[in-house]
Write a structure and sequence with these properties.
The strands form two sheets. This protein has a four-stranded antiparallel beta sheet. The chain is built from eight helices and eight strands; from the N terminus they run ααααββαββαββαβαβ. It folds into three domains: 5-72, Integrase, N-terminal zinc-binding domain (Arc Repressor Mutant, subunit A), CATH 1.10.10.200; 80-129 and 203-233, 2-Layer Sandwich (Alpha-Beta Plaits), CATH 3.30.70; 131-201, YebC, transcriptional regulation domain (Alpha-Beta Plaits, 2-Layer Sandwich). It has helices at 5-16, 21-36, 45-56, 61-72, 103-116, 144-153, 177-186, 209-223; strands spanning 80-87, 93-100, 120-122, 131-139, 160-164, 167-172, 194-201, 228-233. The chain is an alpha+beta fold and 239 residues long.
């Protein structure tokens, strides 16, 4: 599958290390997950996923706890989960997931980010059919063979298990995310470098140097928006 998750994550971490933006995005996501279900991660699979994912981005426990406590405290902020789809330079495709308390504002901001950076919005379904919802889990403490054996013994299915750099990456169906993690935890894994539910492009494309620079400006503009939680795309930025 070859999306080079380590490189992608390192770039994102470097970009966000001196800002509070990533903490704010996780704070919102944690609040919504806790508000929509039980505020105990062990009783709320959606919340548990966000907590596990936040840990891989080194979100402080205080940020996690504060968001959950806010939901427990009866705060009445209402957020809608909305997905936008669009196109960038030379056939590049993007999916933009948002959490917003103002739908009109978010739609206008996402559309402006596309229009000002060489892209254009598409209709629902214009891009997403070229992506597969996928669970991606990465660890560094086991080999590929060990991970395969652990999952087989636990009767957990995976689409693929590959080595990328120093990290063993497990690709699985989204509903297998927690099963994969629990199997690995039972085998002594305590640290996950990647824990994502993502939209994985069926085929990546390569852009020219000029097109790639334009595309990265588009990605940056979208990720800078307060309401944007995730941006998925089909461009190989690590060639």
């Amino acid at each position: 599958m070859g999306r080079k998750w380590n490189n992608i994550k390192e770039k994102k971490a470097a970009k966000d290390k001196n800002t509070s933006r990533i903490y704010a995005k996780f704070g919102r996501e944690l609040y919504v997950a806790a508000k929509q279900g039980d505020p105990d991660p062990e009783l709320n699979q959606a919340l548990k996923f966000v907590v596990e994912r936040a840990k891989t981005y080194n979100v402080p426990k205080s940020i996690i706890d504060r968001a959950i406590e806010k939901a427990k405290g009866g705060a009445e902020e209402n957020f809608d989960e909305l997905r936008y789809e669009g196109f960038g330079p030379n056939g590049s495709m993007l999916i933009v997931d948002t959490l917003t308390n103002n739908v009109n504002r978010t739609a206008a901001e996402v559309r402006a980010a596309f229009n000002k950076n060489g892209g254009n919005m598409g209709v629902n379904g214009s891009v997403s059919y070229m992506f597969d919802a996928t669970a991606v889990i990465g660890i560094e403490s086991k080999s590929e063979e060990e991970v395969l054996e652990i999952l087989m013994e636990a009767d957990v299915d995976a689409r693929d298990i590959i080595l990328e750099g120093d990290t063993v990456i497990v690709y699985a169906e989204p509903d297998q995310f927690h099963s994969v993690q629990e199997a690995l935890k039972s085998a002594g894994v305590t640290d996950f470098t990647i824990a994502e539910l993502t939209m994985l492009a069926q085929n990546d494309i390569t852009l020219s140097r000029e097109e790639e620079a334009q595309f990265e400006k588009l990605i940056d503009a979208l990720e800078d928006l307060e309401d944007v939680q995730q941006v998925y795309h089909n461009v190989d930025l690590d060639h």
